[in-house]
Specification:
Distance between the termini of chain A: 33 Å
CATH architecture of chain A: 2-Layer Sandwich
CATH class of chain A: Alpha Beta
Largest interface: A-E, 25 and 31 residues
Strand content of chain A: 25-35%
Structural class of chain A: alpha+beta
Order of helices and strands of chain A: EHEHEHEE
CATH topology of chain A: Tetrahydropterin Synthase, Chain A
CATH superfamily of chain A: 6-pyruvoyl tetrahydropterin synthase/QueD
Helix content of chain A: 25-40%
Number of strands of chain A: 5
Number of helices of chain A: 3
Oligomer: homohexamer
Number of domains of chain A: 1
């Protein structure tokens, strides 16, 4: 059996389908259009978002696990996916109120939600795919 | 070089990101909620749609092609993707006016748009993925 | 809105992780090894199976749907995925008792389970992926 | 065990990486450029091709299989992948001599190679992906 | 040609299909069921595992390579995939004897196997996908 | 709204299809064959390459973005994809002249091209997939 207490990174992936509009309410329509382009469509547009949550930790000698992936999956479902799925991110999600729902900001908000529930600094990364070609990652206050 | 005039099926895949809401305006809110559930969220939700367009035909002996895939790609881009991408399908797309934008109806509308531009009954199939787990296909009036 | 009653094919995809062993109990060990090779490993091996269920039908004019994909998803979950997931297909699944659990036979069994629940011959196809490189499809008694 | 002799479709997928140039040697350079565009780059370009071979048949009652997928995989490897992989399709592959190596023609040539080795008309389809967005399918002389 | 000796990370991906059961033989059945849930199914269940092995190093000026990817692929095949594929990880794999075959422990064991064969601390990461939604990574004794 | 100036990593993915041949012109044919094997095929072979470019930075408080992903996409298109797509990497790409076009060297060359256009050390990683099973990553002169 593996000895010592090596760090292992475990990741759970989830999905949610949502609408958003990139829009800064303190700017003119022209300025919003200039900066956000087609992402500023007034009626919004949408994505199948994929979110990967990574937790780092040592392995429990009795379980062979860093953390029960089922519990991480449940946490992600309850705290994030159920609140974000089939919603308009500008209007329907409490945690995003007042936030421009760029992928970057959504990832940071998901980090904040989960870091309260995953103790001891073990939350390592939140990665958010807006599409197969665009994605972002946030690792908290750590430097690169 | 292959002899005869065998039928070959060629497919071009494209992507668009859009919002929609499933909602029958002739029904009460309760009835809409009962039938469409979370897909009836008033502010809408969204998807990264993938659309596969298949054309059937014999191979041109000089070109080795059923149809220039670049032309099929351009047709799909101009007639469908540019009109559907980063839009709200209930509000922003002329071809969908008055249509409940289920995947089934979107596929049929894309078929109608393209069948005018792909002559001689060669359009064979329009397949639309709403997510990795849900997709529909329409093959025109052919029987299964 | 689309007129007429065209046939549309809708598909729901699901996943289950299971073990199996290819083994004909009426054969000798040597014969089993010769025919099934490494798939005959006595302790079994396993796969992340993916199953795609396709239903064909005309679109309800009030709903824009062939069938509520949510109901198809629930049906697939309850009747198939919950019974097959995290199981050994030779030992733990009632519907597979006495069946050599090849991908072909599993697809046919899933068809039989679902065709009782999807009336009027609308079940069109069951496609089963054993891995990204191996998959099978069953379309009932229809000819190719 | 499933009764009767239903038809099941089994598919094996393989990969090869190759170069090609679309070019009709009986045409002028200008004509080639007009028809084939960037696919006519004189030094060629390349793809990771994916090929899916589908065989249709009834299930052997003793094996639960249409055909040993391992044998289909070996056939595909030996007859196709080893001859096409890491090659320039215009120059290095005997079976493609004199053929403009469009996806359509490559699929037909693979069909011809395999149909000699898969008896009794059981070869059902050859599907060739040139990229994730472009693919073709050939089903022999069958009508759609 | 690139000057200096920058570090580049090269990765080879491989696949194996196997069964496992999460079970601590020093615990009661109830305790095992409580901790491991459906992963404790007595007859086991299985996965199509994907393993990504990353080696870090500087580029050989004559070869343009960190390490021959073909050799890395052969090493992965011989030392890992051939021993793990189509096996029951609790019973059939020597290197896993006495280890609860969680994804975490399997990744560490694969690291140990390969680090003996990839000298000079160049093995950088072993990433193991149990499914598309669950994966782990081990990077040796390095801190995050 | 997220406070402070946390670092976020944003990634854009692009594709190009190209040919290459691994070959050191200062070596004998035998030596080239010994080292590069089938990758040394004189007429070349090809791939659908995928390139992921990652930029690290803090989020603009007015935009919610590290950098406009559309601008990163345009930069990648203009500086890399248009120059590499449908080309033979040994002959047709100025930036690769004199370089053995291994995945490692291509990644470094793409890094050099982009680092001139992405100021202030914010380019974080260039990841290049030669196929689904082989990929490399370069992170500049940073240590692992």
């Amino acid at each position: 059996m593996p000895s010592g207490n090596p760090t292992v990174y475990i990741t759970r992936k989830g999905h949610f389908s949502a609408s958003h509009r990139l829009f800064n309410r303190q700017w003119s329509n022209d300025r919003n259009q200039e900066v956000f382009g087609k992402c500023n469509n007034p009626n919004g547009h949408g994505h199948n978002y994929e979110v990967e949550v990574t937790v780092a930790g040592s392995i429990g000698p009795d379980t062979g696990m860093v953390m029960d992936l089922k519990k991480l999956a449940d946490l992600l479902d309850e705290e994030v996916l159920e609140r974000f799925d089939h919603k308009h991110l500008n209007h329907d999600v409490e945690a995003l109120k007042g936030v421009i729902p760029t992928a970057e900001n959504i990832a940071i908000v998901i980090w904040k939600i989960l870091s309260d529930r995953i103790p001891d600094g073990r939350l390592f990364s939140v990665k958010l795919y807006e599409s197969g070609n665009n994605f972002v990652e946030y690792r908290g206050d750590r430097t690169a």
